[in-house]
Fold:
Amino acid sequence: MHLLKSYPDISKADLLDRLREDYDLDISERTLERDFGILKKDFNLDIIYDHTTKGYTTEETDQLTTFFKFAELSSLAELYEEGLKDYETFQKWVIPDDSERFKGLEHLKPILTGITSGLKLEFDKVNYYREAENHYIVTPIRIKEYLNRWYLIGVPDGIDEIRNFGIDRIKNLKITDELARKASLFEDQLKNYDDIVGVNFNDSENKKPEKIKMRVTNEQLNYFKSLPMHHSQVCVASDDNSGWGFVHFHLKPNYEFMTQLLRIGDKVEVLEPKWLRKKIKLQIDAMHSLYN
Structure:
């Protein structure tokens, strides 16, 4: 899938050659066709053959994004499994990020169990801003990852709107015997995540997605291409020698989107919409006053 995405319209012969040269996978055409069938049957991924170019390609879809995340986690699981069998080698060759302080990973399994079994979850959640704890009984709907943090998406008893719960702030989690509400009732609400970066879809100025236009340095443009910030992202190289290109989005700008832009610093400039440009400027002015 990585090769199909990286080399659109790649021929079957070239695909087999790259599998052999890049990944040391020597397979037959028959095996490749069988793999295509497995990707369609098990992962709902379409491998498209173009009779004009006589090559294969795949489309950018949410299903493809989900598949790559599944592949990433599966690869990491295999890596850690092999590392645990030989911990000395693991320590020698792998430099992991510091996950010691991140709490809540032990909650993933019971949360998934609650989702798959259709049972409500009960827990306490710490509120960092109010320095308080709140008790919840929740219908679990999904889990979502953002910036190496995991969130439970669920519907608390007493309301009909989905909420995000950072699993690092969950305490005393347990699966109840009470049947959860039908997840299908909240599918429309889940679509809100398609229009944002991150997990918060209620803090945007406008209720509908809008066009975002930014100017970025050519170097930063390459980073946007290699790691898109949102599925609506379109990168446009500049025709002049200014050293700048453009990135377009169609989304609802929220706090998380703005923080992603601010961390890039002077390598990005918001051009449109004007209200977002003004809001970014106010943030920069406030930061400047701290150091002035």
User: Anything to note?
Assistant: The mean pLDDT is 89.
